[in-house]
Amino acid sequence: MIKSSIKDFEVFLKQIGVQKKHTLLVHSDITSLGLIEKDLNGVFEAFQNVLGPEGTLIVPTFSFSFCNQKIFDPQKTPSTSGVFTNYIRTLHESKRSVHPNHSFSAIGPKKENVLKFSDKTSFGPGTVFTSMLNEDVQVLLLGTFRNSYVHYVEKNFGVSYRYDKFLTGFIANKDKKYEDTFSMYVRDINAQGTDEDDRKTQRNLFFDSPLCKSKGFGYGVHRFFRAKDYCEFFFDKLEKDPFYLINREKFEASFKKVE
Fold first, then answer.
1. Rounded distance, CA 201 to CA 259, Å?
2. What pTM did the predictor assign?
3. Interval 31-81: pLDDT, tens
4. Are 51 and 16 in contact (CB under 8 A)?
5. pLDDT digits (tens, 9 = 90+) for 11-32
6. Could you give the CA distance from residue 248 to residue 198 in angstroms, rounded to a whole number?
7. Is the pLDDT of residue 258 over 70?
8. Rounded Cα–Cα distance for residues 242 and 120 (Å)
9. pLDDT for res 257
10. String of b and e for 168-186 (b: at least 16 CB within 10 Å)?
11. Which of 14, 106, 115, 227 is least buried, going by the fewest C-beta atoms within 10 A?
12. Distance between CA atoms of 166 and 59, rounded to whole angstroms?
């Protein structure tokens, strides 16, 4: 097992580009880091030390509660996005957005701003994704290639292979329980060629560009970039080819079979 000190991890964070005062969104496979001193406490401590008191840390705490016909309780419902996200979610200074499918948890002075949302879609223009962009959020992918901004780009461009499916369920927030409706951005059930593996080449073009910094640490390769750069890169690609983020050949063949 690769073992690293908190200081080692802090050095890595600085080298990959994380700075004081950053608003930082972290998607993580925490096992890719190996064993960090003090475990999750040590990982969080390193983020605190590098971001400083004026920095804000954000993690996805997606639960897909309405998709699974479960009550969503922002204080109690576990995140399905990994152990580090559940660690952040349960800290007393953490705030979680009240979204039954795609919630986020944040710690820091900008947590109220980044968690604001005005529409009940998952990736629309009034979601937390836009609020984070307004605060110039930086994205750190720790040992994972998954980045939910890809669906923000697809939604706001208006790709033909995804749509909003509206789901109704119950939210239990402190002393209130109420029924509400939120949408889930889903793929056309007949569409092939729209899986993560089908956009691997396109994804790597961004990862290998000067807009993204990659660095090894522990067992993983980790990536750091500005969310606005990511969105602009793929909006531009979609303007030239609306099927850029999927395997068009597979996609078109799937509909020929249906016919």
1. 29
2. 0.95
3. 999 999 999 999 999 999 999 999 999 999 999 999 999 999 999 999 999
4. no
5. 999 999 999 999 999 999 999 9
6. 9
7. no
8. 25
9. 55
10. ebbbeeeeeeeeeebbbbe
11. 14
12. 24
Q: With bands split at pLDDT 50, 70 and 90, how would you rate the model's confidence at 188? A: confident
Question: What is the C-alpha to C-alpha distance for residues 105 and 31, in angstroms, rounded to an integer?
Answer: 20
pLDDT digit string, tens, across residues 99-127: 999 999 999 999 999 999 999 999 999 99
CA dist 251 and 155 (Å) reads 18
What's at 14, amino acid-wise? K
Q: Do 231 and 154 contact (CB within 8 A), yes or no?
A: no
Q: Judge whether residue 190 has pLDDT over 90.
A: no
Distance in angstroms (rounded) separating the CA atoms of residues 121 and 140:
24
| Alpha carbons 128 and 99: distance in angstroms, whole number | 10
Q: Which residue from 205, 207, 199 is spatially nearest to 247, judged by alpha carbons?
A: 199
CB 130 within 8 A of CB 137: no
* Token pair belonging to 51: 């971001």
Q: Which position has the token pair 């998954």?
A: 146
Is residue 151 within 8 A of residue 60, CB to CB? The reply is no
Residue 229 in tokens:
């750069």
